[in-house]
Amino acid sequence: MPRIPLPRTRGTRLTALAAVVLVVAAAVAVWTTRDTGPAPVRTQDAVVAMPAAPGSAEQVRIDTTTYYPERTPAPAVLLAHGFGGDKTSVDPQAKELAQRGFLVLTWSARGFGHSTGRIGLNDPDGEVADASRLIDRLVASHEVATGQDGAPELAVTGASYGGALSLLLAGTDHRVRAIAPVITYNDLGQGLVPNAAATAAGDAKTPAAGAFAPDGVFKKSWAGIFFSAGSGAAASGAPSSEAPEAGQETTDNGDTAGNSGTSPQAAAPAEGSGQPGGGQPGRAQQPAADPCGRFTPAVCQAYTELATAGKASPQTVELLRRVSPSSVTNRITVPTLLVQGESDTLFGLDQSDATARQIAAAGGPVRTIWYTGGHDGGSPGPQLRAKIGDFLWSSLTGEGEPGRGFAYDVQGTLRANGTPSVRTVSTDAYPGLGGAGTERRPTALAGPQQEVVRPAGANPSAVSGIPGLNGLAAGSSRLTPLFGSDPPGQSAQFGTAPFDSQVLVAGSSTVRLRIATDPAHPLPEAVLFAKLYDVGTDGSRVLPANAVAPLRVSGLPADGTPVDVTVTLPGIVRPIEAGHSLRLVVGSTDQSYSVPEQPGVFRVGLAPGGSLAVPVVPGASAGAPVPAGQLIGIGVTLLVGIAALVVAAIRRRRAHDVDPDLAGTPLVISGLRKQYPGGFVAVQDLSFRVEPGQVLGLLGPNGAGKTTTLRMLMGLITPTEGEIRVFGHRITPGAPVLSRIGSFVEGSGFLPHLSGKANLELYWAATGRPAERAHFTEALEIAGLGDAVHRRVKTYSQGMRQRLAIAQAMLGLPELMVLDEPTNGLDPPQIHQMREVLQRYAATGRTVVVSSHLLAEVEQTCSHVVVMHRGTLVASGEVGELAASSGEATFRVGDPAAAAAALKAVGGVSDIETEGDLVHANLDGMPRAEAVAALVRAGVPVEQAGPRRRLEDTFLQLVGEDS
């Protein structure tokens, strides 16, 4: 039976004990918090017939699925899908809600999935009326819980298109008791045809109040995506044969069990899922193609007008107003949770802000959450979905805490495993709703009046973002440069001074601009695009959330007299770091919007007092919440932490173990031993000492234990026995004295796309030490890289990389430098250069330890040497002394051939070699004087005699030829 090796030292025993405690604690945490699986969810599919629209003989059939919790009656939730999706798009969320006790109804809105009818964009007489009739049917089932007043406990939620439906339904059906709209719009006209310019400054008490000015600029890219999602197929008169029959039931326990009520086709990405468009509205039978697809004629006409003219007529404005939540928000008084995305170029924070103000004015309690996602950034994650569920449950039943006030997420720049850090800032109330208004910090902008050219055809256009790719670009260094481009001559730019400290922008900044047409080529209006960039200390700039504020300024005097307007920039959440600045760019084109094709020139400047008003919303910060189910695990983890602290305290005490008598000695190794699991001993009973100013060569064949010794010296691995002291301090992992050592042991790991100097700066910054202590100039001078230090490392030769690695080890000018095989891969000239580098460094009075197997190089570079073999010390001393201990002698003679013949005649002399006027011989213990006498007797003149100094011979004698 194999023997299990046990820890030999007190420290390793404590470490092993802590590891055992950690394993046991983890097992307890898993056992006590294990998931018993989701509650079973039963589903029932049904097709519900709706009355025909006035003046139409077409009867609409709506495809529905009801999700039943374990117990009914239960509070009910209507869960609406996003544009381009259907009921299957929200299946996971429906199951989550049902598993926590809600009765959930989902359906495919008319024109989508297997439902028939034409898309009216949440028309009150169409989609909104359908939802009210679904409530009739749900309440009639008697499975909806009722409150003390006898009213049904019923709420509505949904994302984007579905979020607008929840608002419209709450404003028209008194049975809705709570709503949670997600990433949706308040005014569809302003969402698709926004105008961020107003002639008079608005009352911006809330943080993201938009201008919502009339006569906006058409958002053609987003609108085109959604129109194509609804025009891919013409309406059929009835659902396909694949539609579920009324009353069909299934049961789902978290895994698919028979027919779960979803349509046979896989659900495509839908609006509200963080991906644009998608879905296949009209999966039913497809008759002849129709350019209007499944849209109503009125919606089709409005889109055609916008897409061709770029402007909205009064009829289109009225249509969009009628289907917008803003038409009913003055009648919404139920508890409302507004969830809006901070990464959303479709429906920005201004839409949620407007809804919050309108519902609060009507007397409804409003809670607002801004999160890091959106149409460009993704749908809510599990924690946010849980908050939505808690809000709905508390609002309907009175149980639990629905939350209150305002919370917004702040995404940091540091990333862990590719994921950016996020913290949440919360306040007791949404600023400007019944309390103090938003603080707006005036920030001075600088820049003269500038001319902005709009080229004919508005081409080329600025590219601020591409719907659906904005979120992808945020995480890709290759795509980011494609966005935020402003063609030369097409933009005016104004900048702030660098900030002295971090400023957290939370909402919509505003600025007063002065705009005029060129009198030589007058135009009655200007279509412009304002963007606010975050500019780093190196000049790089980032457009937060790819957000753009389009503005149309009409009535420009032909003589060039300017018009002053207040521009409301997009709502963002962005920490502007100290040293960064803000840059306002006002351009004439943007790829995502409909821009007039007529060429023009405009003059753009700052109006008097045209400083940038930056919104700031202070609050309490918190990281991600800890689930309640993990509290037991946290308690156990604390116990493990206490054990770890005990071990750390012992290690710290050992780390501060100092021998004052060795304070001036760079390195002392005493009785060092390293045994690995399995019994292999790499180093055994190793002891030696290195004095200041020495260049010590650590020699030995492969497997001698050199690298293991150096790794123990650097604290990378722990000795089994013995100790290492550097300047009197005992070496342990993380010992403070390690900062006095520069090393090149584990490989350099340089980043190839950065310059040599940038790599060194990055390495030094990672150490956390002050930049002024780096001594970049001295290290680079010693390394001798010259101007090459400014080139990218991927262009370096192997020798240059090695010298850069030496420079990295020299940063801070450490008193002891440790190098493992620094000449690997170098050619002879490079080896010669490396020798000079090390000798120059040692000449400064510091100490160098070099591990190598190149004997000749060590002989020429090092002053002292330690020879190891099979983990043990076999010799140490000055290089000259060891080289002379081989027993060989060298004679400088007048006749080398005669000298060689004379020495061969002497008994015991062997290994005779001639080299020019030199003769080398192994005297095998014979005194050199006797050999000289033999040469003289043979008539050979001898000019010089002495030991043959060759380290290689001594080394081979010590370790054996076969090593």
Automatic annotation (TrEMBL):
The chain crosses the membrane at residues 631-650. Keywords: ATP-binding, Hydrolase, Membrane, Nucleotide-binding, Transmembrane, Transmembrane helix, Transport. The keyword Transport applies. SMART domains: AAA (SM00382), PepX_C (SM00939). PROSITE patterns: ABC_TRANSPORTER_1 (PS00211), ABC_TRANSPORTER_2 (PS50893). The keyword Zinc-finger does not apply. Residues 667-895 form the ABC transporter domain. One of its GO terms (molecular function) is hydrolase activity. It comes from the Bacteria. Residues 234-247, 264-273 have a biased composition (Low complexity). Residues 248-263 have a biased composition (Polar residues). Residues 234-290, 419-450 are annotated as: Disordered. Belongs to the ABC transporter superfamily. This is Alpha/beta fold hydrolase.
